[in-house]
Design goal:
The protein is of the alpha+beta class. The chain has ten helices and seven strands. It has a four-stranded mixed sheet. A three-stranded antiparallel sheet has the order 1-3-2. The longest helix has 35 residues. The model has no long low-confidence stretch (mean pLDDT 86).
Amino acid sequence: MCLYMIKMTIGQLAKKTQIHIQTIRYYESIRLLPKPKTKESGYREFSEEFIDKINFIKNAKAVGFTLSEIMSIIKIDECQDIYELASNKLIEVKIKINKGKELEKKLNLLLKKCPNKGSAEDCTIIKSFKKISMKRKIEIFTAGCPVCEEQVEKIKEAACPSCDVVTLNVSSDKDALSKAKKYNVKSLPAVAIDGKLAECCISRGIDLNVLKSLGLGVAG
C-alpha cells in the first residue's frame, strides 16, 4: 500500500505530530497546509503526507524561522534563494544575541548594586526602575597631547551612544583646569563618570576595564 494512501482524522494527525488540533486548523487557514479531502460523510481525511509537511514546519520553526518565512521557503525553487534567507536569519539571530548580552550586563549591574536585604522600598533594583532615565555624563580631562588624544578616542569608542561625553582640555581652558582641580586630578588623561573621578585615574591612570566596571558604555 502506498504510504500516503493511509488516512487519518485531524485528531490522529495531531497526536502523531504532537501539536494541537487548533494549530493544524490555523496552518490551514493561513494556507501553510493544504485543505485535506472531505469524504461524502463530511469527515476530513489526512494522508501521511501531512505528517511530513507539519514536521517540515516544526523543524524550520526550531531554527528560528517564522510562519511567514516558512511560507516563503516553501514557494522558493532555487537553493541560492533559500541560502540568502537563512543567512539573513543568522544575522537577525546574532543581533538578538548581542541585545541579550547587553541585557545580561544591565541585570548583572543591577544585582551587583543591590544590597539583597532590607525592605522593597530601599531596594536599589526597584529604585532603578522608578528613576527617570538620564544620560550618563563622561568627562575626559586631557592636556591635548598625542598620547592623551589616543586615550580620548578609545574612551569615546567605549562610551555608550546615549552617554554625554565631554572633552576638557586643561592646557587651554581655565574652566576645565578649575574642574580638574575640583576632582583632584593628578595625572592626564583622566575620566570622571557622573561627577566622580574614576578610581583608576586616582592611582595609576586610564584603565578601560575599570572604567567599564564603573559604567562606561552603559546608559544611565
